[in-house]
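To whoever picks this up:

The parser on our side crashed when reading a file containing two proteins. I've narrowed it down to the boundary between the first structure block and the second sequence. Both blocks are reproduced below exactly, byte for byte. First block:
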Amino acid sequence: MRVGLASSGSPYSWGLRPDSGRPRITPREFMDYARSVGLDGIELPARLFADQNAAELGHYAREHGLSVTIDTDGYDPDALAQVIELAVQVGAPTVRTVVGGAKIGGDRRPLAGRWQPFLDEVQVKLRTATATAEKAGVALALENHQDLASEELLWLCETIDSRYFGITLDAGNPLATAEEPIDFFRRVAPYVKNVHLKDYRVWLTEEGYRLVRCPLGEGLVDFPALLDILDASAPEPTLAIELAALQARHIRVFADDFWPDYPPRTAAQLAAALRVVQANARPGEDWQTPFEQDASAAEIIAYEERQLDQSIAYIRTLQTARNT
């Protein structure tokens, strides 16, 4: 099981935020860090490759046996074409993107009554972008970024119908669209090209529940089950550790206006998701991350580094267990 590292979970540590006080990490430095901790690849935003020699970076990655995934966002075909070209230059087999539309936390109220026209536009433009990806031999992988539900991801995969279009599965995000995680994994697995290994702890609220980042293996995600599902159904996706955002995600499933633009769900489906929430719910109100407590940059960096170290250690135990 080869596992890489995505940069987005440690924005202070890698200098991705101006207030971190650290210089922004370069792709070469990020590759060297991944190698130093025994990981097998990297996932980085396309913007970090600006003013870099992509061909040289690709050669360096291949020389050291590292996979590369390029992150971007949006669904504009012209913008995606530029990132796909970057992926070709650096030898990245996959470009990950997100389409947005909803606020983080599965909140579709900004597009109330307009969600399906939005999806129709996304489908048309992603179909065009996929034609570019096919010619380049690069997979375009759309993430469940606390916006699209499994039904919608499957619809896009089935209607675009290309082996160069699929899904970046974020393991922590199914509950953000009120879906039971294992069921979500099984539904989308045949289309998965790329995986974010992410975990959350959960706190109950009056409006629903709050998802808060944690080290892998210390939250609600059943990683052994996820990996078994991928082994059975997904054709060797790339995997990367990606710690969650520094801000908690509030999933307001009990709000009256949360549901109107969602696909129809049965009571049994909602009950299955809420059982996972209830089984993993944490007591008390001490859920805020150091970032949410206005801690110093140094304290936030220490928090990120501690969680990443714990996550890497957990992945190593998983790898050992799967190799025995």
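<<boundary where parser fails>>
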Amino acid sequence: MIDVKHQINEVRREVGTKILEAGEARVVTISQTYEGSLDDVWDACTNPERIPRWFLPVSGDLRLGGRYQLEGNAGGTIERCDPPNSFAATWEFGGETSWIEVRLSERPGGRIRFELDHVAHVADERWAQFGPGAVGVGWDLALVGLARHMSGGAPMDPQQGAA
């Protein structure tokens, strides 16, 4: 069972902006710390056999320059990979392209901080209507899944999570 109040309090969320060549973009950052080693959390985030246990089934070529596809969701290209510290990829969904960057860092007490930036060009009208949800609303669910996975809990059921 998930302690919802605890999970909500464990996650840090930030909203900002970033200037890209094509203009200003919105940045949503979400992070949480987990028990485990850097190598284990890296493996959970990059191993196609483990990713579906906490996120979504993934297919494709999970290496630098390779393309990936999350079942029923986004796909893209892996643009940068610095094991076991970070990776960056495009996030292509609904005819739009945005970018994600995942960073892992060691914290005291054998904990690992997972931090994800999602960067997107969002029209002012869309931002006014949806706020940070215009960049993506599923990241909190992903962190819940990763928390369960890293604590040895049962794998997430993607259909149940989507519901």
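After patching the parser it read the second block fine. Strands lie at 12-20, 23-35, 58-60, 67-70, 75-82, 86-93, 96-107, 111-120. The helical segments are 4-10, 38-46, 51-54, 124-130, 139-150, 158-162.
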